[in-house]
Amino acid sequence: MKIKDITQHLESIAPPMYQESYDNSGLIVGDGNAKVRGVLICLDSIESIIDEAIRNNCNLVIAHHPIVFKGLKRFNGKNYVERTVMKAIKHDIAIYAIHTNLDNVKTGVNAKIAEKLGLINTRILSPKRVMKKLFAFLPVTHGDLVKNTLFKLGAGLREDMIHTSFAGIGAMSLEKETSPQIKLEVLFPIDLQSKIISTLNKLLDGENYNYDIVHMEAKHSGIGSGMIGELKKETDTIKFLKSLKATMKTGCVKHTAVKKKNIKKIAICGGSGGFLLNSAIAEKADLFITADYKYHEFFDADGRIIIADIGHYETEQYTIELIYELLKDNFSTFAVLKTKINTNPVNYL
Fold first, then answer.
1. Which CATH code of 3.70.10.10, 1.20.200.10, 3.50.50.60, 3.30.70.120 fits the domain covering 131-218?
2. Model-level pTM?
């Protein structure tokens, strides 16, 4: 088993194209063709994690946060980033990060938080505009075959799980000759584009056909930031905040004034989610759980919602469990370990 087999599996779940522009997810250190001896999963791939990987004979560290966000010009060991990368290279340990691309998928970081909090009826809080549209001009004999095959790939799927497409009959003119063709139109998520093109080429090998692909303003309900859901029943706010502290194992829950005695609709975002406050308010959430709020930003609640900041590490700690679950049932020829080190740099008295 090679490192790239592991990373390709993870990227089939959280495609790199879904990461934010500032991010640096992917294989940061190491050779994708190297054989895997063992995998260590963590939140932050710092020096102590590399030491733990060495002790456990793991040559692949999978982290949520990238150890490198910006370009490094020197490797002198003057800071923790340089020291970590140098030690990983010295001991032939690969470092892979799966960060905002895992944040932005429906089964990712926020889904795990929702699961821990017992939320139901969950959906993406702020869907992304990541849809494209295929216009394919096909021989009439191949219309149904192509349409049904694209549906199986995931094209044309609506939120109600019904596949849709549009087809019209026309004529292709080539000099003095004309031939009947079908114009097939179907929406698809951008990560399917390469599969769709290769499928068209395979199904229509030797046939006369054309296609166009355009970017759409349509949003993809399964891709985006944050998540919103509901508690199974309306719950006393203070009671829930106390249970939140216990469930998320945080030393502190910083929150705005409790304007509602009871709550039911909850918005969440692992990590720094303040940018989603207006989306949470628009969705009429009673409570917004996230991290990294600054003093003045708490005023933005303005009595319309309760903000609860539980800490960055605390919102994302169960990502380790999530990645472990994504690997344990698919790879059994080597050890997959969860770190025993708490890498949270924040301490509470």
1. 3.30.70.120
2. 0.84
